[in-house]
Write the C-alpha cells for this entry.
Amino acid sequence: MESKILYKMRKEYTPGPLTEDIMSASPFIQFDRWFEDAKKEEKQEANAMILSTSTPDGSPSSRVVLLKSFSGEGFVFFTNYNSRKGREISENPKGAILFFWPQAARQVRIEGILSKIDAKESDDYFLNRPAESRASAILSKQSQILNDKNQFDEAVKAISSHESLKRPDFWGGYILSPHYFEFWQGALSRSHDRFAYKSINGIWSVNRLYP
Ligand SMILES: Cc1cc2nc3c(=O)[nH]c(=O)nc-3n(C[C@H](O)[C@H](O)[C@H](O)COP(=O)(O)O)c2cc1C
C-alpha cells in the first residue's frame, strides 16, 4: 500500500489557558470537573478510555473500555478476567488509562495498579446490564479465536430469555488505583498546558510540565 502523508493534518486549539490556581489540589476532584465538562460537550462516549496493560517482559497492549465508576479510590471498568487484558493484569498489575476529549482539546493520563473489585460489586453491576449483554458476557471467551459467529449469536439469543443469568466467576470489575495523573489542555501554537500529579505516601504534589 502507498504511504499516506498526514503532515497537513493539524488543528489549532483555542480554549482558555490552564493555570495552577484553577487546578484542584486533588487530582480526583480535577478529574471530576473535567469529566462533567466532557459529559456535556463530547459527541462520543465521554467515559470511553484507553486501557494499557503489558506483559511481565514489557510488551504493551491497548484497547478501549468504558469507565463505570470512579471515586477517591480509583477508576472501575468491567471485563472478562480471562481476556488478553485479564491475563496480562494477572501477571503484571501495572496499568494506565487515557481519556481524550477532543471537543475540549483535553487529555487525561492516569497510571496505577490494577486489582479486581469485590465480587459483590461486580454482581451488582452485572445484574444492571441488559439480558443480552449478560448472556454475551457469559458465553464470550473474550480474546480467543471464534470460528462460528452465527452459532455464538444464536446461543446468546437462546439464553437471553432465561430469567436469572448470574455473573460468571471469569467476568467482573477491575479498579485502577492511581499514583500518577496528568491533565493536558491544548493551547494556541502548541503552547499546551500540562499539570502532573504524583502521589508519594498518599500525599499528592502537582507540577507544570513543558508542553
Ligand atoms: C467504545 C468501546 C467500548 C468498549 N468497552 C469495553 C468494556 O467496557 N469492557 C470490555 O471488556 N471491552 C470493551 N470494549 C472492547 C475492547 O476494546 C476489547 O476489544 C476487548 O475488551 C478485548 O480486549 P483484550 O483482547 O485486549 O482483552 C470496548 C470497545 C469500544 C470501542
